[in-house]
Amino acid sequence: MSGIDPNFKTTKSIVEKHSDHDVYGPVEPPKKLGIHGSIVAVDFDLCIADGVCLDVCPVSVFEWVETPDHPASTKKADPTRESDCIFCMACEVQCPPVAIKIFQPS
Ligand code: F3S
Ligand code: F3S
Ligand code: ZN
Fold first, then answer.
1. C-alpha span between 86 and 97 (Å, rounded)
2. Radius of gyration for the chain, computed over Cα atoms and rounded to the nearest angstrom
3. How far is the CA of 105 from the centre of ligand 2 (A)?
């Protein structure tokens, strides 16, 4: 397991929107859920619901969403408020499976 693909924006396509953020596919529920978010990106297929991202984020970007029957975990940290991110990077650094990648708009 090597973490979220840092190049997913070129190797994957946006297949849907979820709570105002992009979802990069393929998405084949319940087993394949793709990557949620373009500023704060969370690979739902790698997220194991550790929860440190919700604990450390100073601006409450993340919210739990239920993902019944996903093999890695049955809830995921959804970047519901990704546009509030202040780029502290704590989530990206601390997520155990390295499921988060931050993109600071230039
Ligand atoms: Fe999931 Fe990593 Fe957060 S495992 S809950 S994205 S710390
Ligand atoms: Fe929060 Fe991660 Fe941004 S901890 S402020 S979403 S870099
Ligand atoms: Zn989402």
1. 22
2. 12
3. 13
User: Using a 6 Å cutoff on CB, does residue 40 contact ligand 2?
Assistant: yes
Q: What is the pLDDT of residue 1?
A: 56
Enter the pTM of the model: 0.98
Residue 4: name the closest of 103, 106, 104, 105 by CA.
103
Question: Which pLDDT score is estimated for 47?
Answer: 98
Residues with CB under 6 A from ligand 1: 42, 47-53, 77, 95-97, 99-100
* Residue 105 exposed, middle or buried by CB count within 10 Å (0-12, 13-18, 19+): exposed
Q: If you average pLDDT over residues 17-46, what whole number do you get?
A: 98
18 Cα: distance to centroid of ligand 3 (angstroms): 5
Give the Cα separation of 24 and 4 in Å (integer): 12
- Does any ligand 2 atom lie closer than 6 A to the CB of residue 41? no
